[in-house]
Amino acid sequence: MNKKLQVVLVLLTILLTSTYCNKSHEHGDDNKHVEHENEHNEALEGMAVLTPRQRLALNIELGKISMRNMSATIHSGGVLKVSPNDKAEITSFMGGNVKSIKVFQGNKVRKGQVLATLEHPDFIQLQQEYIEASNNYNFSKIDFERQKELYKNEAISAKIFQKTEAEFKNYKAKYEGLQIKLKMLNMDYKSIETGKLETELRIISPISGYVNKIDISLGSFVDAATKMFSISNNNNIHADLLVYEQDIPNVKIGQKARLQLATMPDIELTSQIFSIAKEYQKDSKAVLVHARIDNAPDKLIAGSYVNATIFTQDSRRKSVPESAIVKDGGKKYIFVFDANASEIANHSDTDGHAHDGDDGHNHKSSEHKHDDNDEHSHDGNDGHSHDSDDGHSHDGDDGHSHDGDDGHDHKSSEHKHGDNDVHKHDGDNGHNHDDGHKHENEAEHKHDDVYDNHSNEKHATYEMFANKKVAFRMVEVISGVKDNSYVEIKLMEPLDKDAQIVLDNAFYLLSDIKKSETEHVH
């Protein structure tokens, strides 16, 4: 009885020790797995990782940054304007009441055309003063000529002549001043001199153009400060474009610009830059650039918004399609294929080795060649199924047994392998076989771990990951001028000339990164 109890105690001790060792081994493996996973997560942080199925669905296209002989363009917005010489705000030089209005808003008028008439007693008084000044001038002129002759003949004193001369000049100044005033009021001074007085004051258009605004009504009183009409000549309309400070150095007088109006989407107008302002606008860091429109149609309206494309000089520039650029946090980026990160992304799916079974070996029964050509078909646990958990089962010193459940009675001599017997291992299992197994390349094992001897190997190409995950990293760029669908870029970090970038649908990669960051936070 005591002997049985001792046996039981020994067995329990062995069982507990084995269980503790197994659990310690499992906990150690779990800790290593967590540490390994954290390393992979850090290495892939900020990366967009796509599976083959995702790349196919998104139709991801890769290519290189191209050097294009771009007809550089600058895009800007603005409004249509008329020059100061082609617009007029009409006022009256004298106050009066509106007697008649001769035009309507939108009417086309010619220079000198009557727009309205005013009436006021002051107009009559002004004409009377002019007639009086004219008479005084004419009389003093005759008297001055007579006194001048007498003075030459010393018939009068110098004092009398000088007084006559002063009076003549005073009358002349008043007469000519009133005459200029009547001209400014568009009155016929010659007719007035004959005694034909005008009862109304005519308001005349100083330019040809269109009546944009009428600010008077019949009977209203207007003075010199009252705006009566607004007229503009749209035949000489031009575009005032707002060009921001980073683009101004590339804009020169004489460059062409293509204009498009929202009200005329099917028509493109050509123009030429004729003036560039020398100060920034108050509300924005932009400078006004003036472009004269070639053959401007009559239907253009001042104040219309316009989109412009300014053509600068041609030059070779680094460029990518617009669809390759994404915006994030006020900055712009492109996505570049990263071979190292791609290998890490694929490596993170396993424990670092490629296994066909649980023991780390990938052996096929067909690789065991027997000298006696005797073929053996083994199932599950018969010792020759190397895809299972038991590893190799050979009769001999290697600890494997062929006797038992498989129904085969094999001796160790029956398992002599030929010199060409090859066993390939996908993982670096670290097993040394003394049973005659010969490994390919003199026991050198193929290893998939990206951390071993990677620095001395040539970087993998995108084609090598056709059926694997691919990682892309974000590289900041500054965009420049545009030419059709291509955009000039300036890289904020150096890239290899053969670097592969995502040419289209880059937005989806940014969405993938944002989604991963959100999941990581949660």
Ordered list of secondary-structure elements with their pairings:
Layout lengths: L1 H42 L3 E4 L1 H7 L3 E2 L2 E16 L5 E4 L5 E6 L6 E2 L4 E6 L1 H32 L5 H27 L4 H5 L7 E4 L4 E6 L6 E2 L6 E4 L5 E7 L11 E6 L2 E17 L5 E8 L11 E17 L4 E3 L2 E7 L1 H9 L74 E2 L14 E2 H4 L26 E14 L2 E6 L9 E2 L3 H16 L1
Parallel strand pairs: 19-20
Antiparallel strand pairs: 1-21, 2-23, 3-12, 3-16, 4-11, 5-7, 5-10, 6-9, 7-8, 9-11, 12-15, 13-14, 13-16, 14-15, 16-22, 17-18, 18-21, 21-22
How would you describe this protein?
β14 (264-280) and β15 (286-293) form a beta hairpin. Strands 3-12-15-14-13-16 form a 6-stranded antiparallel barrel. The protein has a 4-stranded antiparallel beta sheet with strand order 4-11-9-6, with no helix packed on it. A 4-stranded antiparallel beta sheet has the order 8-7-5-10. Helix content is 27%, strand content 28%. Among the domains are: 47-69 and 321-347 and 453-521, conserved putative lor/sdh protein from methanococcus maripaludis s2 fold (Beta Barrel), CATH 2.40.420.20; 73-83 and 232-315, Efflux pump adaptor protein, beta barrel domain (Elongation Factor Tu (Ef-tu), domain 3), CATH 2.40.30.170; 84-231, OB fold (Dihydrolipoamide Acetyltransferase, E2P) (Beta Barrel), CATH 2.40.50.100. It has 522 residues and is of the alpha+beta class.
